[in-house]
Amino acid sequence: MRGHGFLLANYVPGNSLIHRTPLAVKFLLVFASGLASFLISDWRVSVAVLAGLCGLFLASGAGSRRLVRAFRPLAPVLLVIGAFQWWQLGGATAARIVLNILVCVLAASLLTATTPVQRLLDGVVKAAGPFTRLGADPERFALTIGIMLRSIPYIAGTFADVRDSARARGLDRNPRALVLPVFITSVAYARQTGEALAARGLGEAGDQEPDDD
């Protein structure tokens, strides 16, 4: 299986101001970007915010190629969303919605590109700490995010490999030739991940209450 990225940029080692920014501030930046997507009503403001985030991304040393790779997987979806919103609500609204989605993705990419995964997960554990009184398990929450960050690129890579294989056999227009191998591989990967977690006492079996007798 060859390596594949997905929506969020991978960590890029560096010593930029963005790298040295406290994790809490980066979390707030992502949260503020998500909040802004609901509050911004002018597409020109969205352009300004997106331009600012692009500047921060490039200043971090992550590079323009990673910036493009963060947007490329979204292009087909955004094209459909933009066309539909243009038809329904007009060009200004369509531009605002598409730009605000890009703002959210870029803010999250800036976080992952300048923060090592382990530090990111430690931050998640710390942030989820106050919710333990409500029955939450911060360690398990962080583990879930870690598995997600690992699984999405793997499954995306599986689909790309299957698609290339089907194209080489002239079956790229056959849905079964694309969906079935990806489904089987994804289920196998999920089972292997579950077995690995269970072997470390992290599966559901580890949560069962011991018998009273």
UniProtKB/TrEMBL annotation:
Q: Which keywords annotate this record?
A: Membrane, Transmembrane, Transmembrane helix
Q: Where are the transmembrane segments?
A: 21-40, 46-63, 70-87, 93-113
- Residues in a coiled coil are none
UniProt GO cellular component terms = plasma membrane
Record's subcellular location: Membrane
Under CDD domains, the record lists: EcfT (cd16914)
Q: Does the keyword GTP-binding apply?
A: no
Entry keyword annotation includes Transmembrane helix: yes
Domain of life of the native organism: Bacteria
Q: What is this protein called?
A: Cobalt transporter
Topology in the lipid bilayer is annotated as:
Multi-pass membrane protein
* Main subcellular location of this protein, as a coarse class: membrane
